[in-house]
Design a protein that fits this description.
The complex is a heterodimer of chains A (340) and B (281).
Chain A (H helix, E strand, L loop, with lengths): L1 H4 L10 H15 L6 E5 L5 H12 L3 E5 L9 H6 L4 E5 L13 H12 L3 E7 H11 L7 E4 L5 H9 L8 E3 L2 H4 L4 E10 L6 E10 L12 H13 L3 H11 L4 E3 L14 H13 L1 E3 H8 L5 H10 L3 E4 L2 E4 L4 H10 L5
Parallel strand pairs in A: 1-4, 1-5, 2-3, 3-4, 6-9
Antiparallel strand pairs in A: 7-8, 10-12, 11-12
Helix pairs in contact in A: 2-3, 7-9, 9-10, 11-13, 11-14
Chain B lengths: L3 E4 L5 E4 L6 H31 L4 H5 L1 H21 L4 H18 L1 H16 L7 E4 L2 E8 L3 E5 L5 E5 L2 H4 L2 E3 L7 E10 L4 H13 L4 E2 L7 E7 L2 E10 L5 H18 L19
Antiparallel strand pairs in B: 1-2, 3-4, 3-7, 4-5, 5-6, 8-11, 9-11, 10-11
Classes of the chains: A alpha/beta (340), B alpha+beta (281).
Chain lengths: 340, 281
C-alpha cells in the first residue's frame, strides 16, 4: 500500500513555520523572557501532530499533559506543580465547561500560570478559545499566539502526496462525464413593457444541453483535484486527508469523486447549541453534554437528530463532529451566532 | 385629446392637457397598480426569505423592503399620471402644486404618514426586525409600509402605528439595526444573603446561556444595588437574536434561581416593588 511504499519518506507536515515560531518563543524563555504560548486551531487541523513535533524538538525538557475529557477536579494541578521547565498542555479547552460553576478548573489553572516560572505551551480549539476569551479574557495570560490557518491547494497537495512515491498516483479527469448531464441554469426572457421602448431581461429557468460544456480550457486533472479538495475541506488538512482517503482507489484518483457534500442544517436552537458545544470541545462525553444541556433540552432527541443528519457521530459514549460536515457546521453556527 | 380648463382665479387659467380616458387607459392604470403590487409583494417575500436564511444579515435585507415599496409605488404613480396628462415642465409643476395643496387640505394625515415613511427609510430611527417602543407600543417591527409601521407585540398582537408618529413621539430601539440586543435581567435576593455569590451565579448563568453572544462589541456586566430589605442583582448581556429576548431572560432566571437555592440564597421576605425590566437602567 501507499503508506508502506512511502514509509521511508518523511511525511510533510504543513505547519513548519508555526513550529519555528513556538521554538523561537522557547529560545526567548531560555534567555529569561517569559511568554506563554497559545496554539489555537480548528478541529482536525493537525494540532496534535504539531505538539508531537514540539515534543520531539524539546525532548527531556518537557512535561506533557493532555486532556481528553472535561476536567471536573483539579487533580492535574499536582502534575503542573511537579512539571519540568516547559509544560505542553494539549486541549486546554477541557478545563472549562459551559455551565454554572464550570470555570473553576480554568480559573485555577490561569491563576497558577500567573505565578509560575515555567513555560507553558497550551493548545486550544478555536471556538472554545474565542468563547473563553470573551468570558474570562484568557488572552491576557499569554504572549505568543499561534493560529493554524487553513492551507492552500499547493500545501495540501504537498502533504497528501508526500505519503506516496513520485508519480505514484494517477489522476483522471472524468468530470466531463459528470457534466454530460442536462443542467438547469437561469436564462433570460426578454420582455417589453408598455411604457418603455427597451426590452428587459426577466430571469427565466432554462436548461443547458450536453455537449456545449466541452469547450473549456484543459486544466490538469491533478490541479482540478486539489482545487476541489481545498474548497470542500476549507483548507483543513485533517478533513482533506479524510476525504482523500475516502475517495482514493489506489493508485487512481477520479476527479468526479470530489463533490461538495450537502448537509441539512435545518435544526432547532437547542440542537444548534449542542452542536456548538460539540464543535467547541471536539469530542464530548454524553454525561458532560447532559450537564451542559440541563433539564430544558431533550438531549436524547437532539443528539439523535444531529446524528441522523450526519453532522455528528458517537463513539464509546463520546460525540464528535464528522470530518465532512465540519465546514457546513461552522458556517451554519457562525451565521446563527452560536459560535463567534 | 380632450382638453380641460381649470380656473384658478378670475383672471388666469391653466390648461392641463388631459389625455382621453377610455377603457384602455383604465386597464392600463389597473395593470400598473397590479404590477407594482406584485413587484412589492414578491420582492418583500424574497427579501424576507433571504433575511431569515441569513440571520446575521437580516437587517441589511429587510431594510431594503420599505425602500423598494416607496420607489415602486412612486414610479407607479408617475406612470399613472403620465397616462392621464401630458404636461410640459411648467404644467407639471403647476399640477403638482395643486396636487400638493389638495393633499395638504384633504389628505394631510395620509400625506404626513407618507412623509413619515420616507423619513423612517432614510433616517432609520428603526428598521424592520428592530424591537422598538413607540408611544405605548412595544414590539418587533415586522413591516414599514407607505402609511404605517407594523409591530408584533410580545403578546403576538399585530399593531399598526401611523408613520407620522415618528415626528411627534420618542422612538426607542432596543437593538438599533443589530440582530443582537441587550437584555436586562433582575434578580432580587434577601438582604441577608451573600451578594457576591449571587453576582457570580448570575454572571455564569448569563455567559453560559445558549442565547448569549459575547464580544468586545457585545459586553456583559453584573451589578448589585442595595434596597431596604433586599439586594437587586442586575445582569446585562446581549442575546444573539432579539427574537430570543424573553427566552433568554426566562432561561437565565430559571438557572440562576436553581443555583441560588443550592447556595442557600433566598428571595426577599417581602415582594420588592419591581419596575418594568429596562425601564430604569
Amino acid at each position: 500500500m501507499a503508506e508502506e511504499s512511502g514509509s521511508a519518506k518523511k511525511e510533510i507536515f504543513g505547519y513548519e513555520r508555526e513550529v519555528d515560531d513556538i521554538l523561537q518563543a522557547v529560545s526567548k524563555f531560555d534567555q529569561g523572557i517569559l511568554g506563554n504560548v497559545a496554539l489555537i486551531s480548528d478541529p482536525f487541523s493537525g494540532r496534535t501532530r504539531l505538539v508531537e513535533e514540539l515534543k520531539k524538538n524539546l525532548g527531556e525538557r518537557v512535561t506533557y499533559v493532555s486532556f481528553n475529557s472535561v476536567m471536573t477536579d483539579s487533580s492535574f494541578m499536582a502534575t503542573l506543580r511537579d512539571a519540568r521547565e516547559i509544560v505542553i498542555m494539549d486541549n486546554c479547552h477541557f478545563l472549562a465547561m459551559r455551565k454554572i460553576g464550570g470555570f473553576e478548573q480554568m480559573n485555577e489553572f490561569l491563576n497558577f500560570i500567573t505565578t509560575s516560572k515555567k513555560f507553558f505551551i497550551t493548545t486550544w480549539n478555536t471556538f472554545s478559545w474565542t468563547y473563553l476569551n470573551a468570558v474570562l479574557q484568557i488572552d491576557s495570560y499569554f504572549t505568543n499566539f499561534v493560529t493554524l490557518s487553513p492551507l492552500d491547494a499547493d500545501n495540501l497537495k504537498k502533504i497528501l502526496l508526500s505519503r506516496y512515491g513520485s508519480q505514484e498516483i494517477e489522476f483522471i479527469d472524468d468530470s466531463a462525464a459528470e457534466e454530460r448531464k442536462l443542467r438547469f441554469i437561469w436564462g433570460c426572457l426578454n420582455i417589453k413593457i408598455p411604457f418603455s421602448k427597451d426590452a428587459y431581461c426577466l430571469p427565466w429557468p432554462s436548461f443547458e444541453l450536453p455537449g456545449r460544456l466541452h469547450k473549456k480550457k484543459a486544466i490538469p486533472a491533478e490541479e482540478i483535484t486539489f482545487e476541489r479538495l481545498t474548497r470542500i475541506s476549507g483548507g483543513n488538512p485533517g478533513v482533506a486527508r479524510f476525504i482523500w482517503d475516502k475517495n482514493i482507489e489506489f493508485p487512481t484518483i477520479w476527479v468526479s469523486s470530489f463533490i461538495e457534500p450537502v448537509f441539512d442544517t435545518n435544526i432547532s436552537t437547542n440542537q444548534s447549541f449542542l452542536l456548538s458545544i460539540i464543535l467547541s470541545m471536539e469530542h464530548v462525553h454524553y454525561d458532560d453534554l447532559a450537564a451542559i444541556a440541563g433539564p430544558e433540552i431533550n438531549i436524547h432527541r437532539a443528539l439523535f437528530v444531529l446524528q441522523k443528519k450526519g453532522l455528528i457521530y458517537e463513539e464509546d459514549g463520546y460525540y464528535a463532529i464528522g470530518h465532512e460536515p465540519l465546514k457546513s457546521v461552522i458556517n451554519y453556527l457562525k451565521l446563527n451566532r452560536m459560535v463567534w | 385629446m380632450a382638453d380641460s380648463i381649470l380656473n384658478i382665479t378670475g383672471s388666469q387659467s391653466f390648461a392641463l392637457p388631459l389625455k382621453t380616458v377610455d377603457l384602455g387607459t383604465l386597464f392600463y392604470i389597473v395593470y400598473i397598480l397590479i404590477i407594482a403590487y406584485i413587484i412589492v409583494r414578491i420582492s418583500s417575500f424574497l427579501l424576507k426569505k433571504i433575511a431569515e436564511r441569513l440571520p446575521r444579515f437580516r437587517h441589511a435585507f429587510t431594510m431594503l423592503i420599505p425602500l423598494i415599496k416607496i420607489i415602486v409605488y412612486f414610479l407607479a404613480l408617475y406612470f399613472i399620471l403620465t397616462s392621464l396628462v401630458e404636461p410640459n415642465l411648467t404644467e407639471l409643476i403647476a399640477f403638482f402644486g395643486l396636487f400638493g395643496a389638495a393633499l395638504g387640505f384633504g389628505l394631510k394625515d395620509l400625506f404626513a404618514d407618507i412623509v413619515g415613511g420616507i423619513v423612517i427609510i432614510f433616517e432609520k430611527p428603526y428598521q424592520i426586525g428592530d424591537k422598538i417602543t413607540i408611544g405605548d407600543n412595544y414590539g418587533e417591527v415586522t413591516d414599514i409600509g407607505i402609511r404605517s409601521t407594523r409591530l408584533l407585540t410580545p403578546g403576538d398582537s399585530a399593531v399598526s402605528v401611523p408613520n407620522y408618529l415618528v415626528f411627534s413621539q420618542a422612538v426607542s430601539s432596543g437593538n438599533a439595526g443589530n440582530v443582537a440586543m441587550m437584555v436586562i435581567i433582575d434578580i432580587f435576593i434577601d438582604s441577608g444573603c451573600d451578594g457576591g455569590s449571587a453576582i457570580k451565579i448570575l454572571k455564569e448563568a448569563m455567559v453560559t446561556s445558549k442565547y448569549v453572544i459575547i464580544a468586545k462589541k457585545f459586553p456583559f456586566t453584573v451589578l448589585i444595588e442595595d434596597f431596604p430589605g433586599y439586594h437587586r442583582i442586575r445582569g446585562k448581556a446581549y442575546v444573539n437574536d432579539l427574537r430570543f429576548e424573553f427566552e433568554f431572560r426566562s432561561e437565565v432566571t430559571r438557572r440562576t434561581w436553581a443555583e441560588l437555592k443550592k447556595h442557600g440564597i433566598n428571595p426577599p421576605l417581602f415582594h420588592p416593588s419591581i419596575t418594568a425590566p429596562g425601564a430604569e437602567q
